[in-house]
């Protein structure tokens, strides 16, 4: 897996005198020679480019994924003081919603760095990953038609972050945070890999109530249209088919595949309980005004069912719709991880 570099430099030229201009030109020439040397030296190296961002740092990494066979951009939020501290930090991986990408959190950059700088929350490394594809979303699973995203995340991305940064490289030092499609992703991945992740925070997650959620969801998906049905089919149906829910035997088989996508939590939790590792905390948030009512029902169902199975799940609601905002991240998610993951 290779990382491409992006190098940005602003040169200020002093044109007040001919002598100053000549000095500047000599400096530029020397600089360009240095850049050429560095690029030649770094060819093939595991390198990255850093972009400064106020009191913290925001790294943009362009990853050439061997698993996916394509480039993916991710953003790494390094906390204030990271460069000088020499300390190790826990990592929160953020999974975005459908029809979005890794830039979904960039609008909250100032708020995230500010509360860390002020000491209101613990300092973490935050990684905004990219789970999009040509259809609008991978749902963070492996599929032949949607891409082997889970393998990319587990086999490539997590090891890369631990290699490149000073991280607490254990389940105690890794958290999963996601919204909507990403909320589903963090819940599923958290249950599947408790040996890698210690805490899960899911906002407005895609979750079905058994024998009810799919039918309710199809009503809203068809109403709002878009590419969601195609991307969901690519992620969860072997033949990428969309069920009509007409009751026929053939259609029932496709519907069962779809049901096992945002549904199937009983089996996932049973498999989780057979693992040697356990999650420290799970927090599910739903919006009281979410236009997808089946998400509200599914969130309540899953939190309750997890509780009956002895999982450390809690649920909370906010008077919001189907959205993620800076307030939800800094006032709820960050304190949650501060409580359940070591900061340094």
By CATH, the topology of the largest domain is Rossmann fold
Categorize the overall geometry: globular
Order of helices and strands: EHEEEHEHEEEHEHEHHHHEHEH
Number of strands: 12
How would you sum up this structure, described in words?
Helix content is 41%, strand content 19%. The chain starts with a strand and ends with a helix. Helix 6 packs antiparallel against helix 10 (293-308) and helix 7 crosses helix 8 (249-262). It has two domains: 2-42; 49-211 and 245-340, Rossmann fold (3-Layer(aba) Sandwich). A hairpin with a 2-residue loop joins strand 2 and strand 3 (56-65). The protein has eleven helices and twelve strands. The strands form two sheets. Strands 1, 2, 3, 4, 5, 6, 9, 10, 11 and 12 form a ten-stranded mixed sheet that branches. A two-stranded antiparallel ribbon has the order 7-8. It is α/β, with parallel strands linked by helices. The longest helix has 25 residues, at 18-42.
Task: Annotate the secondary structure layout.
Blueprint: E1 2-4, H1 18-42, E2 49-53, E3 56-65, E4 70-78, H2 82-85, E5 91-95, H3 109-117, E6 125-128, E7 142-143, E8 147-148, H4 149-164, E9 174-179, H5 181-192, E10 199-203, H6 213-224, H7 228-236, H8 249-262, H9 265-273, E11 281-287, H10 293-308, E12 313-318, H11 326-340
Quick description:
The protein is α/β, with parallel strands linked by helices. It has helices at residues 18-42, 82-85, 109-117, 149-164, 181-192, 213-224, 228-236, 249-262, 265-273, 293-308, 326-340; strands at residues 2-4, 49-53, 56-65, 70-78, 91-95, 125-128, 142-143, 147-148, 174-179, 199-203, 281-287, 313-318.
């Amino acid at each position: 897996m290779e990382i491409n570099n992006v190098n940005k430099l602003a040169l200020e030229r002093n044109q007040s005198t001919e002598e100053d201009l000549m000095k500047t030109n000599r400096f530029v020439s020397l600089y360009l020679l240095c850049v050429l040397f560095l690029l030649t030296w770094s060819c093939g190296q595991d390198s990255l480019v850093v972009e400064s961002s106020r009191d913290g740092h925001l790294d943009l990494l362009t990853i050439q994924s061997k698993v996916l066979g394509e480039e993916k951009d991710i953003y790494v939020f390094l906390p204030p003081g990271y460069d000088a501290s020499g300390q190790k930090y826990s990592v929160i991986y953020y999974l975005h919603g459908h029809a979005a990408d890794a830039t979904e959190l960039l609008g909250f950059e100032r708020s995230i760095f500010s509360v860390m700088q002020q000491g209101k929350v613990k300092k973490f490394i935050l990684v905004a990953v990219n789970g999009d594809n040509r259809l609008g979303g991978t749902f963070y699973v492996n599929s032949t038609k949607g891409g082997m995203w889970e393998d990319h995340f587990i086999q490539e991305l997590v090891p890369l972050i631990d290699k490149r940064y000073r991280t607490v490289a254990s389940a105690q030092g890794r958290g999963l945070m996601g919204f909507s499609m990403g909320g589903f992703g963090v819940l599923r991945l958290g249950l599947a890999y408790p040996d890698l992740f210690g805490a899960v925070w899911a906002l407005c997650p895609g979750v079905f109530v058994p024998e009810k959620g799919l039918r309710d969801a199809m009503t809203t998906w068809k109403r709002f249209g878009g590419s969601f049905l195609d991307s969901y089919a690519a992620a969860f149906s072997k033949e990428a088919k969309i069920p009509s829910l007409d009751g026929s035997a053939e259609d029932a088989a496709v519907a069962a595949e779809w049901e096992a996508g945002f549904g199937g939590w009983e089996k996932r939790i049973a498999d989780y309980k057979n693992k040697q590792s356990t999650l420290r905390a799970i927090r599910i948030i739903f919006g009281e005004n979410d236009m997808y009512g089946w998400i509200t029902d599914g969130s309540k169902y899953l939190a309750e069912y997890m509780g009956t199975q002895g999982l450390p799940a809690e649920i909370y609601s906010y008077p919001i719709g189907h959205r993620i905002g800076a307030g939800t991240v800094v006032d709820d998610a960050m304190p949650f991880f501060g409580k359940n993951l070591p900061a340094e």
